[in-house]
Design goal:
about 5% strand, alpha/beta, 22 helices, single chain
């Protein structure tokens, strides 16, 4: 492959991921990642009990801990994920080249480079893109190991990357499982390769050993009902969610005003997937497996198995959350890249690609120009300008304290209130003593539809001002008759 193609792909991927990277404030989850990463490193040690919840002691937060030494602006914080996203594209380039050759690899990498879905999560200070990077490094190591006779180091690399992916985000294991199913098929179909059985088993034994602390940590967290909120918020997924995954992976979840461009682009990407899913023809003198069937089977397993297994498991325990499935997206780019290469005539290929790129452009324009995230920076600026030193601020839900104090540094009397408190019996002990000593106070509401606290405050005070900052509401109350 021409190295200049690689340079161009990297340049495109970087550019699309850094445009307006620091324009918006950190949203809720990003602020939590910065808070975890900014804490003492001992609290992030997943090999020791105590500290943060086990899933918060992940590899991304450990790396971000050191990265924060470069600065704490939104641009710098998110730049780490940009690096991981571009690195993932390069790894996918290597995987696709080993499966389908350089031409298909360039198309696959290009599709991932411009994917609004992958761009979005490559611009977010969260662990999902890093989990995908580790998962696909493990896949690349397996492909190399299968092609070489002496590959103990590659099997070791596979075990290490798979373990790092697991300790970054659990969903990376679905990609690792898919490539292992493929190895099992290779061992069955190709008896000559059975010498790699023991290295493969040894690598997976090492992975299991490395995963013991993960299993214990996840089990302990599960026993505490830690993920009940997923079922409450997302519920059990339906077949429609599974079938729409290719659209989400191709064009993301932002819906531009030009829906025709979105759906036309999705249709063109879908055509690429359909063409890429067509099995290869058998070459004369070779079996179908030798004629590219082995590589096709690998790509199809990597595309179909992770999402299908996650969907099936989510019928029992809801966990089918789109951002968790970032590691699944590259397989769709690989298959679609192969599909576009099946279109022999260049003008026909571009006749399909141009509408897809138009859909990409429509989504990216909205992503860059229309604010998408909670404006905690704006909310904090308002509070700084209007709340006197030591002023009283109620917060509901209580968890919004972390993103707020990331920006709001002024001295204030903060009172977080859990979103589950809906009755007077719950609210009065927490709120009444505070209101008794102040004549005015502020209420910040986000990440909840519970207005019980607002209704409670209305009984004793009047709202003199209301401000909204994209999914954040701030109410300024003045108590009737002054402080008690």
């Amino acid at each position: 492959m021409d190295r200049w193609i690689v340079v161009e792909l990297v340049a495109i991927a970087v550019l699309l991921r850094v445009i307006a990277l620091g324009d918006e404030s950190l949203w809720f989850d990003e602020a939590y990642s910065v808070a975890f990463a900014g804490a003492d490193l001992s609290l992030l040690n997943f090999l020791r009990p105590g500290g943060f919840a086990f899933t918060d002691k992940n590899v991304y937060h450990i790396l971000l801990h050191f990265w924060l030494g470069l600065g704490r602006t939104e641009f710098v914080i998110r730049l780490l994920s940009v690096i991981f996203g571009v690195a993932t594209m390069l790894v996918v380039l290597g995987v696709a080249r080993r499966l389908f050759g350089g031409r298909a690899a360039a198309w696959a990498a290009g599709l991932l480079a411009v994917s609004p879905f992958h761009i979005w999560y490559s611009r977010e200070a969260r662990m999902y893109v890093l989990a995908g990077l580790f998962a696909w490094l493990a896949v690349l190591a397996v492909l190399e190991a299968v092609q070489r006779r002496r590959a103990l180091a590659l099997w070791g690399m596979y075990a290490l990357c798979a373990a790092l992916g697991l300790y970054t985000h659990t969903f990376s294991i679905f990609v690792v499982a898919a490539v292992n199913v493929w190895v099992a098929v290779v061992l069955i179909v190709e008896p000559a390769r059975r010498k790699m059985l023991w290295p493969w088993l040894g690598a997976n034994a090492a992975l299991v050993a490395l995963a013991v602390p993960w299993f214990l940590g996840i089990s302990a967290q599960q026993s505490q009902g830690w993920w009940a909120w997923i079922g409450q918020k997302y519920g059990t997924p339906g077949l429609k969610q599974l079938l729409l995954l290719p659209v989400d992976f191709a064009l993301g979840t932002i819906r531009p005003p030009w829906l025709w461009a979105l759906w036309l682009g999705a249709g063109c990407f879908g055509l690429g997937l359909l063409l890429g899913a067509v099995p290869p023809s058998r070459r004369r003198g070779e079996s179908w497996w030798q004629s590219g069937g082995r590589e096709w089977a690998c790509a199809m397993l990597l595309m179909v198995l992770p999402a299908t297994v996650a969907f099936a498991l989510a019928q029992v325990r809801p966990m089918f959350v789109l951002r968790y499935m970032v590691p699944f997206a590259p397989a769709f780019a690989i298959v679609a890249g192969r599909g576009f290469c099946q279109i022999r005539r260049a003008f026909l290929r571009w006749a399909v690609m141009i509408p897809y790129l138009a859909g990409v452009a429509a989504v990216l324009l909205v992503m860059y120009l229309v604010p998408q995230k909670e404006d905690w920076r704006g909310a904090a600026t308002y509070l700084t300008q209007h709340v006197p030193a030591g002023g009283t601020i109620f917060l509901v839900d209580e968890d919004i304290r972390v993103p707020l104090v990331h920006y709001y540094q002024a001295p204030a009397d903060l009172h977080p209130v859990w979103r589950g408190h809906r009755s007077d019996a719950d609210l009065e002990p927490k709120v009444a003593p505070v209101m008794a000593r102040v004549s005015e106070f502020w209420l910040v509401v986000s990440h909840t539809d519970n207005d019980a606290l607002e209704q409670y405050l209305w009984r004793f005070a009047d709202v003199v001002e209301r401000q909204e900052f994209r999914d954040i509401v701030i109410l300024h109350f003045r108590r009737r008759g002054g402080a008690g």
